[in-house]
Specification:
With 229 residues, the chain is an alpha+beta fold. The chain has one domain: Sandwich (Immunoglobulin-like), CATH 2.60.40.200. 28% of the residues lie in helices and 27% in strands. It is built from seven helices and ten strands. The strands form two sheets. Strands 1, 2, 3, 4, 6, 8, 9 and 10 form an eight-stranded antiparallel beta sheet that branches. Strands 5-7 form a two-stranded antiparallel sheet. A hairpin with a 6-residue loop joins strand 3 and strand 4. It is globular and about 45 Å long. Bound molecules: copper (II) ion. Copper (II) ion (CU) binds next to strand 6 and strand 9.
Length: 229
């Protein structure tokens, strides 16, 4: 069992570059497992990494942005439109607000304890707080957002973009959110539910799928690290 996990983790590590395909849904057999937005603009660069949150709804967001000024507050959001080829952050339009929270509340005040009813879906800084840079001009932040997903039409982050704003709210840097799927999904149970129809077989199925999950997690971590570099 542990030998298998170790072997799978090594396989995942060496094959991670080819394990993933950039995909946002044209092939239903490919399911997005993580998404990344690399933001650039005005000397600022950064990465926003999204993976399913553990043990709760939504996604875990890991942010690392460089080129900021120490101590200042930088808001950041999911904006509706993609960044065009010329990199113009203004072209990304407004914040993702599928449920119309902002238009319904004349005095908008995102309360992170009630995100669904008081926050625009795209108001990530409203839920997690603004980015604040250290002495090296770098800001890191990790949080769970309970609303956003890779799947549901109303809550998906795919097909949108990330914008980091200056403290005065002008647009500083931006990048598109790109989904990544496993190229060869190897465990049918997570896609077809076959583990339920085969429940009278012994427990070896669940063990092997657990090993695959461990390998997948390792591959995702490696992928995230590779993208962050
Ligand atoms: Cu914004």
């Amino acid at each position: 069992m542990f030998k298998n996990i170790v072997a799978l983790v090594f396989a995942a590590a060496t094959a991670s570059a080819s394990l993933y395909v950039r995909d946002t849904g044209s092939n239903p057999a490919l399911r997005v497992e993580q998404a990344v937005a690399n933001v650039t603009g005005n000397g600022v660069t950064g990465s926003f990494n999204f993976v399913p949150a553990t043990g709760q709804t939504g996604l875990k967001v890991s942010i690392n942005v460089s080129g900021l000024k120490q101590g200042l507050q930088y808001p950041f959001h999911i904006h509706i439109n993609v960044v065009p080829a010329d990199g113009n952050c203004t072209a990304t339009g407004g914040h993702l607000d599928t449920y119309g929270v902002k238009t319904a509340n004349t005095a908008y005040n995102c309360d992170k304890t009630k995100p669904l009813t008081t926050c625009e879906i795209g108001d990530l800084a409203g839920i997690a707080g603004n980015l604040t840079a250290n002495a090296n001009g770098q800001a890191t932040l990790t949080f769970n957002d309970p609303i956003i997903t890779f799947g549901d039409n109303k809550t998906t982050i795919l097909g949108h973009s990330i914008v980091v704003h200056n403290p005065d709210n002008t647009r500083l840097a931006c990048g598109n959110i790109v989904g990544y799927a496993l190229k060869n999904p190897s465990t049918p149970s997570s896609h077809t539910g076959s583990s339920q129809t085969e429940s009278d077989s012994d427990s070896s199925d669940s063990k092997s799928s657990g090993a695959s999950s461990a390998a997948m997690s390792a591959a995702l971590a490696i992928m995230a690290a590779a993208i962050a570099l």
